[in-house]
Amino acid sequence: MGTSHILTLEPQYLKIVLSTGFEHYEKGEVFRDVFRSLFGTGVFNSDGEMWKFHRSITRPFFTRDRISDFEIFDRHADLVIFKLKERFSQGFAVNVQDLLSRYTMDTATEFLFGQDVKSLSGELPYPSTYKGCTPPHVHPSDKFTSAFNRAQEYSYPHGFFAKAWRLVEFWEDKVAIQREITNEFIDPLIHTALRKKRDAKEVYEVDKDDGTLLDHLVQQTDDFDVIRDEALNILLAGRDTTAALTTFVVTMLAEHPDFLARLRKDVLDTLGPNGKVNPENLREMKYLRAVLNETLRLYPSVPWNVRCSKNSVVWPALDGGKQIYIPGRTQIHYLPWLMHRRKDLWGPDAEEFDPDRFLDERVKKYLVPNPFIFLPFNAGPRICLGQQFAYNEMSTIIARLVQAFKEISLDMNSNPEAKPPAAWALGPGRRAVEKVWVKSDITAYANGGVWVKMQEADME
Q1: pLDDT tens for residues 27-51?
Q2: In a domain, 366, yes or no
Q3: Does residue 143 form part of some domain?
Q4: What percent of the chain clears pLDDT 70, i.e. is strictly above it?
Q5: What is the CA 37 to chain-centroid distance, rounded?
Q6: What is the pLDDT of residue 208?
């Protein structure tokens, strides 16, 4: 479609693109056009001075004190545990992808906007094979979350058509329609924040512990569209990526009961059966962090990303090869999903799930000398601002789950559509052993969900 593309899985080149040669690369005009309906001019879809502006107004919000407030995570985790026990008591499996997406949606909207959409208050879906239930009651939050999900789903195919995507959606922009629905929730909150600022008749001070993202944004600008775009960008990052990771963590624990037992011991030795996660004890649970990192390695939440060369550049030769000439305005695609599984970068067991690789000698052998082989949060000046926020949120919910439940098992018969194609079992790599059907739009997800049953831990 009139654009040039190159794909690389080489960490040496990604170091140049994302870090040491950062000034020569950007998201680019094609990317910005393709995702404008979804991201607007937010931080994920801007370059140059606009990107610097968005980065500068968002960074102060992610202070150590602010992201270390575990109360929001824990309060919503209480409802997750309640929902699980309630459904298991009825004898049904639970789609943890759906449940954890609700959890991250509620924590993210409360953290960012000061008001959550209360999606956890809605009824969980029953297995598709269960014919004895009435359709679940439509909760008010479903309108927002469904539109939020569809906006991303409709955006992804735009990338295949580049600037010609409008010819495919000539009569209507499907993403823009969904954005109108999500705006119904976000817009009143922005109006309230701006009115609060106007009523103060001056830039009001926001307490770093109590102020929301909106409070911080309106201190920097009165531009309604800029505030809304940035808020939605951060919401997408704060909800979908963490939901994807925690879903795959539960999947891996279900498939590896020995790792689950070890993780439970790590958590119970530190927290006991009822203790809460805080910044101090979180540092002690090294195996929990290793489980999260290993899941991020095999199942990075953003499997694919792209940059664009601003001008012609030459990449250095590698391993006796030749230099590579990259013309200006070339789309540079990179796939952490594939790079994280390269055996020459991670060792002969690269396709196996083994959290110990982040604890034993393999760290010094592979990761320490070449940190760009691990890019779950990107790298360089555009590294994810919410990285520690994500670790805190994910650690809280996973710790709470293993405190409450001692066994996890997959029950993929609850939804036959969730099973991978039979041909996968005959293929190479991890496809041959996958129990869930992994797909991706902007973020990774399990087609049809991940259905599990859990056995409650003994009261201690």
Answers
A1: 998 888 888 888 888 888 899 999 9
A2: no
A3: no
A4: 92
A5: 20
A6: 47
State the average pLDDT over residues 2-28. Answer: 94
Distance (Å, whole) CA 305 – CA 336 = 8
pLDDT tens digits along 51-81: 998 888 888 777 766 666 788 999 999 999 9
| Mean pLDDT on 171-185 | 86
Quote the domain boundaries for residue 419: 35-57+64-138+231-302+376-456
The 4-8 sheet, strands edge to edge = 4-8, 330-334, 305-309, 25-26
Residue 217 CA to residue 56 CA, distance in Å, equals: 10
CATH of the domain at 295: 1.10.630.10
Judged against a pLDDT cut of 80, whether residue 203 lies above it is answered with no
* pTM attached to this predicted model: 0.92
Task: For residue 427, give every residue at least 6 positions away whose Cβ sits within 8 Å of its Cβ, in sequence order, or none.
Answer: none
CB atoms within 10 A of CB 39: 25
305 Cβ contact list (under 8 Å, min separation 6): 333, 334, 335, 336, 378
The rounded distance, in Å, linking the Cα atoms of 282 and 268 is: 12
Please indicate whether residue 386 or residue 18 has the higher confidence score (pLDDT). 18
Q: What is the domain count for the chain?
A: 1
Q: Is 268 a domain residue?
A: yes
Residue 135 pLDDT > 80: no
Q: Which residues contact 420 (CB under 8 A, 6 or more apart)?
A: 431, 434, 435, 436, 437, 438
Q: Are 87 and 53 in contact (CB under 8 A)?
A: no
| Residue 167 pLDDT grade (very low, low, confident, very high; cuts 50, 70, 90) | confident
Radius of gyration of the chain (CA): 22
Residue 258 within a domain: yes
Contact 250, 453 (CB under 8 A): no
